[in-house]
Amino acid sequence: MTTPRRETLAKLTPVLTKRWLSPDAWRIGTYEKLDGYAALRKALKAHPDDLIQLVKDSGLRGRGGAGFPTGLKWGFIPQGDGKPHYLVVNADEGEPGTCKDLPLMTHDPHSLVEGVIIASYAIRANRAYIYIRGEAVHAARRLRNAVQEAYAKGYLGKNILGSKFDLELVVHSGAGAYICGEETALLDSLEGFRGQPRLRPPFPATHGLYASPTVVNNVGTIASVPYIVLGGADWWKTMGTEKSSGPMIYSLSGRIANPGQYECSMGITLRELLELAGGMQPGHNLKFWTPGGSSTPLLTAEHLDVPLDFESVAAAGSILGTTATQIFSDQDCPVYATYRWLEFYHHESCGKCTPCREGNYWMVRVYRRILSGQGTHEDLDTLLDTCDNILGRSFCGLGDGATSSVTSSLKYFKQDYLDYIEGRTAPKLSDKQLVGAH
Amino acid sequence: MTTTFTEETRARAREIIARYPADRSRSALLPLLHLVQSEEGYVSPAGVEFCAEVLGLNKAQVGAVATFYTMYKRRPTGDYLVSVCTNTMCNVLGGQEVYDTLAEHLGVGHDETTADGKITLEHAECLAACDYGPVMTVNYDFFDNVDPQAAVGVVDELRAGGRPMPTRGARLCTLKEMAVQLAGFADEREGAVADGGPGEPTLRGLRLAQEHGISVPGFDPNTPIRSKAEADAAAAKAKAKAETEKPAPVPARGGDGASAPTGTAGNAGVGEPARPEQATGSTARDVKAPDDKSPEVRAAETRQPDAATAVPDAPGTKVPVDTAPPAPRDAQEAEAAGAGTNPPAGDGKPAGDEAGAQERNLKEAEAQK
User: Fold this and answer.
1) Of A80, A178, A230, the CB nearest to B125
2) Any domain includes B74
3) Mean confidence (pLDDT) of chain B
């Protein structure tokens, strides 16, 4: 493997991931030695509004996929309204391809806990919840342990560090539903209901958990807060681009030499990321990739130089999403890949909205037909028509996400579809292989 | 009335309910459903009844929730739940063969349990470990980069009474024991929390940075948090200064832009681009290579230089900026006063009044989704 060029290496920005190198950073003693809880002490001396302003100034945007400005979100919480406020951390990581929050919570759980305390103080919340994906058991173990340690040290509970600020923090495990990563479905789930999205408005900022003002933030967003409190907004903005500031954990998977987590300055390109990751595996040539999970439209080799920040990826016709970069080669079939994603959306659709529930059900069937060599040319129109009827017609983004890979694969790889339909590609599925999702 | 559940389970149920606000006990339903699985291995009708009873719900309400979530099993399960990821990435990397091989080897299909009651097999959706693909989990702890042979080895060992060590995560327990943890209780097993260091893929970017001595320059944990009073004073001063100097040319090196981080997007760009030497200052390693930079990166750096530290300016020649070194600490007083008199964030009106603004912003965010 050739060493990446110096200027590419310089795009690495180990900030949130840095403590992962210290095997005991999940213990509070080690964490405290590595700047741990210093940000909390500093933050508790500041006025909560100044913290909100600081986060606004930093330009921090949500790390969960939508990239909403975090400080703005915090500022929406009405103050002095006499209602309890809540902070809910969305740790329901499940977007296919995404694998950055689990290692963070497993290897550096206190950074999330510290961020939770600071954010709660800023928005004046006395109760916070971390809604963690059920399957993420080891991350939850470490997180629960961290919360316990933080209580024992007086970082949580009553009168934290003599500041008169109280906070109760509960780690709440989900039970296996991708939809609960959608913030309003998450809130319903946390209230003890089926996880189904709510109609907005009203927004969680005013009517969130228990119909009270609530901030819902992703793990990476909240874990960024202590660093901004320590290093300042201007330091944070030395990383990333003007409108997409800070470092971002890029999760590279697939047909590359060294898959893994690469925390880089936002705006790095796939070409540079591939350089860091040792290039494609021998015998594989890049064919298609997702910039941020399966809900983001596919990109191709012609997009190698698109800066991976919120604006540039949008300009290229996709979405930055969770920066879960799944890389596929010429040995992978975009039709089959899309089919498997659709099986996923079909399984995970909560059933609330007809377009998403029925549309995904039928699209899966159309794909099976195409992949078993029985597709027709009309099927392609049916797919696009179905996507038209799902996109923007459901309560939440799950249905929209499902259409991403369908429309983008049809845009870039129509020939691959035609090859199945016109018999040039051998059928990929037989009845026996129609395993699909549950 | 249910009689199946032990006093220990009932005590745990009370503990779970106590985690949530008194009038919001329904929040305890998900952990309670995990709890009943910890005793029965699945959510039985008795389990549903138990949850309904302790929360004051009816069985239909509980059943509706229990059947929504994949992790609540509706039939008795084995000691070990083997989940193979067959979502796209793991699938193309070989996960489908792993699943097919296990199904054939064990003689069971999805969500079915072997006759000896040891293993329940399922194909799972993305398990959030794509950099280790293909993966499978046993009771949700990871076995990474599995191939059919390795997977068969794991299940054979499990059926023979062994407990193979997961690649990452803690030593195995039974599915019922795991359900106790899912209900929100600590893993009491000696050393279990410490098990499982990060694997190489997790650390790859870090190792590269370490190897080449890369870190993010300019991090000063003592950077002050500016109070509103300070911010207002700085803004007022900047404004006054800007007015007196109105016809004056754009200040070099974009110092002005830094004082107003919002709304001056173009400012940094139009000013004379900072030279990288200036931007990084003299102390920092020049890890940001001078060339080959995207315009955005350059703009961000242009906006940032000298604001905090770097080049000393002659007194009085410089517009105060964001990170002006902590104003003499009599500002402490001002800060305290400011904190006291600050209006609460927002305007105190129900935020619904701001729905316009909020909606616009959310739309913008949605548009990107």
Assistant:
1) A178
2) no
3) 77
In terms of domains, do B314 and B253 share one?
yes
Residue B330 falls inside a structural domain: yes
Q: Look at A103 and B65 and tell me if their CB atoms are within 8 Å.
A: no
pLDDT in tens, A334-375: 999 999 999 999 999 999 999 999 999 999 999 999 999 999
* pLDDT tens digits, one per residue of A189-200: 999 999 999 999
User: What is the CATH classification number for the domain harbouring B41?
Assistant: 1.10.10
**pLDDT tens track for B92-105:** 999 999 999 999 99
Its pTM stands at 0.84
Preceding omega of B148 cis (within 30 degrees of 0) = no
Residue of A nearest to B83 (CA): A135
Give yes or no: residues B61 and B152 share one domain. no
Domain hosting B12: range is 7-66
Alpha carbon distance B282, B284 (integer Å): 6
The verdict on A191 touching B (C-beta cutoff 8 Å) is yes
Element (H, E) at A106: helix A101-107
| B3 confidence band (pLDDT: 50, 70, 90) | low
CATH numbers and ranges of domains, chain A: 35-236 (3.40.50.11540), 334-433 (1.20.1440.230)
Task: Please list, in sequence order, all residues whose beta carbon lies within 8 angstroms of the beta carbon of residue B117, skipping any fewer than 6 positions away.
Answer: B76, B78, B79
**Would you report the helix, strand and coil content of chain B in percent, each value rounded to 5?**
50, 5, 45
Q: How many domains does chain B have?
A: 3
